[in-house]
UniProtKB/TrEMBL annotation:
The keyword Metal-binding applies. InterPro entries: P-loop_NTPase, Shikimate/glucono_kinase, Shikimate_kinase/TSH1, Shikimate_kinase_CS. Its EC number is 2.7.1.71. It comes from Tsukamurella soli. This is Shikimate kinase. It catalyses: shikimate + ATP = 3-phosphoshikimate + ADP + H(+). ATP binds at G14, A15, G16, K17, T18, T19, R118, R154.
Amino acid sequence: MDQAPTAILIGPPGAGKTTIGKRLAKVLRVQFIDVDSEIVRREGRSIGDIFSTEGEPRFRQIEEDVVADVVAHQTGVISLGGGAILSSRTRELLSAYQVVYLELTVDEGIKRTVGSGRPLLAGDDPAAKYRALMAHRAPIYRDLATIRVSTVGRAPASVVRQVQRRLKDTEPGRVRRGPWPKLPAVLRSPGSKSGSGRNRTE
């Protein structure tokens, strides 16, 4: 695993995976790759457009393939979209690497994401959708994590320092075998065509 990623960041919408990932990569002097941005680059269209024209199942297939390719061929810090961990293939893949879960409370997550235009939070009650999303995903985030760091009430620099410190103190990898628990149904909602969330799914 000489070419393994330094760290793979996971977490819910609004946790700051891209912001923390960029800063962490700079401190560690490694490259940073955001999987959502990589999907947009490869597909030549926004994530909101993929959701609205082809639906979430197709997006998840694309996401799963891009995650597998990036993790296999890139080093440095990798940030995954919030829903990437819903794929059993991706969960098995992550079990061999350093996985940093950027934790966020539900209330803080709602505060940070309402009005963001994320496709999965589109509709009349994005707060309710966020709560349901977290009920589904939080146990999976916790199960996958080798490192857990809260981002609530903390400046990005503080979060980065803690992640960096924890990476030094944690074994470089682990291998875990299933069985993985059966997941509840994934939330479905139409894609949004407006707002900064066009390139964020979560």
